[in-house]
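[step 3/7] fold_predict: job queued, chain A
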Amino acid sequence: MTGKDHRTIKCQQIHNPEGWNMAKYDYSRFKDPDWSDDWVYQKPKPYTYNPDKEPNETTEEEKEYVGWPDPQIACDKEYWGIHEVKGGRLEIDVRRFEYACYRCGDHDPYFPEALRKKGPHYIASKVHRHDYTFNYLMDSIRNLKEDWNYEYKPLFNKVFSPKDAEDNYRTNTMMMFGDSEMFDSVELGSKWAYFNRMNTYYRIQAELYYTFLTKVIIEIHRIILRAMTMQLYQNTEYSVFDLKTYCNGAGVDFYHLKNWKVYLKYNDIYNFLKHNSIQAYEKLKKFNSKCLIETDQKYENGMFAMDWLNSKEINIDELLSDIVPFLQDFCKKVLGEDLKQAEWDYDDYFIETQKELEDPMEHFGIYGACGMSPWD
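[step 4/7] structure written:
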């Protein structure tokens, strides 16, 4: 951080409006130049560029600038107001934690405003991030999105395409015969290879797509079941009926959850892909007829379900996006979780914040990825 980064302008020392007793923990050994028991965070003034400033002139803002603490100090949990108490839990000195966030980088993204209302010292409601079902579900969906975008989507470009077949035929034939007089014949053969490949190419593309769609739907069912189990659900089976019953038991109508239609739509698609049965077909046709192609042909048991689906109405990106409000509403209304508080109200949040701000490159493994070490 340079002297011109005024995110860390020295905060004013003002009266403690809450009347908190800050004497529980002593931080004098850290010798912070601007810390006192009545320290209160004030938003930094925006830096004003002065073109007339002399090279060696020090502005009032630069005089107030307080740099980063010594790295050896910043890695001390107590510097951050993080104190171990009985039972292995952590007690957070709220004002000191806010001060450390301010000193070590960027206050706003890391210090939860709601924490300030918890009093001078606070023990989080949970220990680990996934002790909140909401965090578990959101992290699981994020992992699915990453798998889809970075692992599975690139596979579609690896499928041998009609253009690949055309080029492959042309190259191999010319290499074998090398006769320019055969050019017209080779071109005709390459076009035949192109059209001959089309049906197989589109079939493989569709199979790949519906394979991952099935995986996503299965994973959504799994993580919902896991979330319910985390909340003491003891049934040995899981179905849409069980989910509705679980919601009813919490006094919530399943059909009042946001985007419930998205959940049921893709559940019906999954059942049709899984069973290839008339019953699954008729159910999908009844509630989501647009997901089926328009045809005069009658569906029979065992016909390949994929051939009957309208790909324009089925979208993995849509599912991964639109299922989020459903899961959020489920956590909020059925499980009674505070979604905003779940983002930070657990012990590990404070430890992770300390590690990330004290040395972001170390925390995210950038040193090793770049062939560097923390001592370079």
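[step 5/7] annotate
The chain has a mean pLDDT of 84.
The chain has two domains: 6-125+344-369, 133-336.
exit 0
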